[in-house]
């Protein structure tokens, strides 16, 4: 996950709030705390001490101490969560300025400047979008998209479903080497996973690779990926 934090921030992700689990501010839910701890790559001792506060992650320091975690480990965890939340902050600024149109992505640079988005983030966003749009020139979207787009909680973690069209888009993003946040932005737009998980899913897809996803989508009915929290454990067709 350290690579994730040091990657160039390109387009962006929006952490969607799904379900009553996130209805209250500063809430720690054990099941989702496990997923968040794995996404940020913290020791399992932090489960129950990491939760969500709105769109951001937070650390219950007292709970961490009760769990027997050292001061140094707590300090390290706070830095990782700070980095993770920085990605979220950038995402919240940029995502409303993105529009997915077929295989292309539109970015309102003028509005971004008016809203005070940093030049660095604007330039990084433009760079990734230009690569994606150039790669998709001349590629026509098929009229029908087979399969479904959804996030489903499971006892072993969760499942992610992408229809044939969105699977092809993700394969394209991976093929051109799009940034982690570009892929996370697409994931959020396609399936709206719970807060804090889009980045972990994006990192997992990068690990799976375009080749494996292409094989899974070969039948043209979309892909299904099973996850043990942040780790993909099975990739196949929705057929």
Automatic annotation (TrEMBL):
The chain crosses the membrane at residues 170-192, 199-225. Keywords: Membrane, Signal, Transmembrane, Transmembrane helix. Residues 1-23 form the signal peptide. This is Uncharacterized protein. It comes from Lysinibacillus halotolerans.
